[in-house]
DNA sequence: CCCGCTATTGCAAGCGTGTGCAAATGCTGC
DNA sequence: GCAGCATTTGCACACGCTTGCAATAGCGGG
């Protein structure tokens, strides 16, 4: 291990002929330094290659500038897009993102939060899974902020950002009916997360309100391969559906591909399809998928804004919940847009 | 701002009735503590919710455990996959990933490295762009390790991981010729990064070795939309190519979609296509793309392994370069696999 | 020339941890 | 019981920084 030799404020001070505090103040916005001292310090710092040690600064200030992003399956298009938006906006707010990958077990989220505590992160943003209540409470008690995106949790303290999954799913029923579809199906994964289930319930309820039934099928995890299997299952039924709402765009891509290539069905003529997330692939001309857009940019903006706000103590007792609308993006996978 | 109140080793020591060093040693692997003291410390720590302050530990040890990942366009499938692999393997090695997003400007990479220095990162892994030589040297002098993935840079010190882009591109010529293709084209972006250009040169050279010419077209940045434009340009030529090698899978997807939907061409009957990266979408049945696989898992493994190695001083003067082979994944977009 | 005020500067304490060193403790064998 | 040894423990300093406090310098007005 080669020795790390970073230059310290002390050395800069000596070179500039000032005290260590002068150096410190030069790099602290709003501190009181004369223009002349500042100039000499900056000059010396530049010559020596000095950079403030954020570890030490964080130790003193009790504020590390670190925000933990806790997420599983980063490589998934929707997750990756949200991640991009979050890191970008965090950077603009002067924070830095620490990325912690979780698997789909509950324990891994807890481990991630423990790591966030260890690095004295200012906040943690959870995109996947749910932490144990006790560890979440520990974070909050320690003064760490918590943001839950598309997760459902009832304990007070964290900011919760959610979409109107239920209502959105209801709106797609109307679109299918207007296109003349009569046999509706819902393709879901077995993951069973609250947002996926809300879409399912919303779709079923919306159909029932119009006196229609929905064939629900669930399989595997929320990915392309699962979509293929779901198509396999739904399209070999005696009563083939003529419209299917997929809980996720990835599922929809898999679904459309087998519908076309294995069952030679034409979309949207014989089968209308809708998805959810509006991942980039949904706009590719092979899919041209009508879907609900995740407002990733707004989600990130709201989260970062909330983190940057000065927060009174009282606030932690009241409801912190944001409900965003998922807008329907019309494309060619449903007749008569 | 609500006050942060983390519990310190001091408090744990008092509760457990031992000295603070005992607490410290309990959480330091390999330190000398008796079983009994350890038990009492762990018990007290658990009751109080104590977590070692990694900021302070990093300050003392001169080793933060942080590794910076410097990357632009995180949401791109290949980047996201590499990112997943890296964060995962870093975690397994006991490190933690700090994600820094850059735009496509040079300066943003420099800013990222400055941040890496400020947080006293143990290492930085650069996936996009190239840092200024002076700032890279500053990192190395400070004892920070540098890894460049698919970037070309000649200065000694960093570990460079590259693929055999040139040779791989040559191999695809053979595949095209064996499929009976005669009019070859290469679709590239204008990004001009070394790996993209190496693929282009390798393809052209390989063709020329067999006495064939290549139509080269370049446009925009390396994404789906650029692929569409490239198809537009190449397929409206008087002499339509019957085989096209796209510098990237994303380009290939865009290319295939317009070839099919706008020019009604059949793949691979009228047009053979190959790509590079083997992103997930390449295996989707709408594309079924023959392509070269980025060995993301190996890349990440090699990088992490190198970081974890104890490194003698001398090593920083010799060549640190790894050349990995890109394996051809045969699918249906070239005739006669 | 001195007073009062303000803008700047230096001192030193403290943030939470690791670790060398010496003291203390426990254990073995006689 | 005691010497000899290995293991464990506590003390105190160091890491690089911020910041309250007091001292100093600068300066205009009387």
Written overview of the protein:
Chain A is α/β, with parallel strands linked by helices and 337 residues long. Chain A has 3 domains: 9-52, Orthogonal Bundle (434 Repressor (Amino-terminal Domain)), CATH 1.10.260.40; 65-163 and 296-324, Rossmann fold (3-Layer(aba) Sandwich); 165-294, Response regulator (Rossmann fold, 3-Layer(aba) Sandwich). The first copy, chain A, contains 12 helices and 12 strands. In chain A, the strands form 2 sheets. In chain A, strands 2-1-3-4-5-11 form a 6-stranded parallel sheet, sandwiched between helices. In chain A, strands 7-6-8-9-10-12 form a 6-stranded mixed sheet, sandwiched between helices. In chain A, helix 10 crosses helix 11 (249-261). The longest helix of chain A has 16 residues, at 77-92. The radius of gyration of chain A is 26 Å and the shape is elongated. The model of chain A has no long low-confidence stretch (mean pLDDT 92). The interface between A and B is large, with 66 and 66 residues. The structure holds a DNA duplex (30 and 30 nucleotides).
